[in-house]
Amino acid sequence: MWQPSSIVGAMVLSTAVSAGLAVAIWRQQQTVAARWFAAALMATAVAALGSALEAAFVPLSAKILASKLGYVGNVAIGPCFFMFSMEHSPPRPAMTTRRHLALWFLPLVTLLLVFTNEWHHLTWPTVTPTAGPQGAAAIYGHGLGVWGVAGYSYLLMAVSTAMLLRTVRHGPALYRQQARPVTLAIGVGILANAAYLAGLSPWPGVDLLPVVLSGCGVLLGWSVFGLRLLDLVPVARGFAVEHLTDAVLTFDQRLRLVDANPAARGLLDRPLAPGTSAAEALAGYPVVLAALTQGVDGRVDQPLSVAGQAVRWIDASLTTLRWLERPVGRVVVMRDVSDARQAEANRHELQRRLADAHHDESLGRLAGGVAHHFNNQLGIVLGHLELAERQLAALPGSDKATTHLARTRAAAERMAALSREMLAYCGGLSVQRTSIQLADLVAATSELLRTNLPRDVTLTLDLAADLPPAAVDANELRKVLGQLITNASEACQGGGQITIHARAVQHDGQPLGAGWENAEAVSAGLYVELAVSDTGAGMGSDVVEHAFEPFYTTKFTGRGLGLAQVLGLVRGHEGAARIVSAPGRGTTVALWLPSGPGPLTP
Question: Domain 6-236: which topology?
Answer without folding.
Answer: Rhopdopsin 7-helix transmembrane proteins (1.20.1070)
